[in-house]
Design brief:
seven-stranded mixed beta sheet, mainly beta, four-stranded antiparallel beta sheet, 115 residues, single chain, 0% helix
Amino acid sequence: QVQLVESGGGSVQAGGSLKLSCAASGATFSRCGMGWYRQAPGKEREFVSIVSVIGTTGYADSVEGRFTVSQDNAKNTLYLEMNNLKTEDTAVYYCAAHCPGSSYWGQGTQVTVSS
């Protein structure tokens, strides 16, 4: 059973930084691509960033150059470092594991950026 638990969300002013964590159990990064997604109020969930099973990374255009995804294989933890945050980054951020045959989601962590 794959379980994902996000943490690290909070409230910051525009221009600030936050680092999100996603602790994964039951999933190994060698089998599952790991991703970050977000959902703002009244909007659909959208892709933010991903790390493939071979370690390649990808980002949405809106966060490219400001967000950095990384993972610690020993701790089975995925990270999302977010810098120069903008008000439009306000959303619930979700971690996902895309494993053979199934995808799993965490419960989300709220990020609020104020001007």
